[in-house]
């Protein structure tokens, strides 16, 4: 990360210059009014404002990230600001987080109307969804070469720049407590961004200070070798593969080595695991798959796309209650009236919106093998860190996360159940200052399986309250 320092000295200067130019030529308050969403098709009536639009993160290349911001339903002036990121790499936080999981609107099966989510996380916080990096969802660059250099570092850098410029539009939120949350490959995005903010807060002027208090990640990719090991062990322990297949992996796969797939016995055994997982929903082992003809068939059909060199695979984060939600989103966001309402277009040209971008996934240029050093650094800095796992996810299963957190080699508290509405919600344990919890019966995208329980958990995280013992 040492390469950040000279880059961010330069970017800090650009931010100050950019803010000054905007103050003199185009007041931020006017820009905020332009981004107010007033006629979103199919939207139920709500008592809060929401805004969407673009924030430029690189003026020279015309690199711009799309955001959707929901004010808290009540007490917006006092509640924290939370940035939500989905993973992939290459998948949309608008298509998943905002309108499947934790946002106030859920897209209905007709692809035309929205239902109100009574368990939206904006009941407790101001929620900011970001499509990142460029090429995801509605986010774009005017320079095609930008799409060929995407990876963890540039994603963190652009997101940091986005935040600084976004605070220029919404300065009233800069002093609010700030948290980052996300799931899946955002298990890398989130701590990497948190580390960058933490480092920049030390050297940036007070005007650029971000009041970061912590982060929360669900079913997160964390440590490549342990993520692999946990997925293989989980598939065997949940009756997906045979004893013989699992033994072949144990005997032939060295997940700590970058060339383990050169071992044909290992790669053949891993292929067998994926062949079996692709018969079901890898992201939710015990729920039905989407069987109707759908617009995202290729994104859903799977296949062994797991690349050991960067430990990534396209995340198809479908739900427990309706596995076809991805399709409804594709229909809705590719409508002209929807794009117009969200300030995506100003004219006749529709943008082609996909819930996941395979070109980004396949062309990802850098991925940290482990974000555990960032965990240790930010734990020492006093940030609140919660990690959670839906325990029926076969993609980044609970075992992967336990193996990874055990590698922190910090003291652990007693493993115990936590309760929601009189029932065991899952189990929880502290790893030093970090809290780890499971969600009983939930898959990869936890809020889809019990939105009430997920909101309760989120509220506990924001307040720093210990999860109830009964």
Rounded to the nearest angstrom, the radius of gyration is: 21 Å
In whole angstroms, how far apart are the ends?
Answer: 43 Å
Q: Percent helix among the residues? A: 25-40%
Number of helices: 15
Question: Tally of extended strands?
Answer: 12
| Fold-level CATH name | Rossmann fold
CATH architecture label: 3-Layer(aba) Sandwich
Poorly predicted parts: 1-10, 12-26, 293-321
Indicate the proportion of strand residues: 15-25%
Describe the model.
There is one protein chain. The protein has a single domain (1-221, 310-470), classed as Rossmann fold. A hairpin with a 2-residue loop joins strand 10 (416-420) and strand 11 (423-431). It has 470 residues and is α/β, with parallel strands linked by helices. It is built from 15 helices and 12 strands. Mean pLDDT is 88; it is low at 1-10, 12-26 and 293-321.
Compact summary:
The chain is α/β, with parallel strands linked by helices.
Key words describing this protein structure:
470 residues, alpha/beta, two-stranded antiparallel sheet, 15 helices, globular
Helix and strand arrangement:
Blueprint: H1 4-25, H2 28-35, E1 50-58, E2 63-70, E3 81-85, H3 94-101, E4 105-107, E5 114-116, E6 126-131, H4 152-169, E7 178-183, H5 186-203, E8 212-218, H6 224-237, H7 243-252, H8 264-277, H9 297-301, H10 325-333, H11 336-341, H12 358-362, H13 372-380, E9 384-390, H14 398-406, E10 416-420, E11 423-431, E12 434-439, H15 451-463
Helix pairs in contact: 1-4, 3-10, 4-5, 5-13, 6-14, 7-8
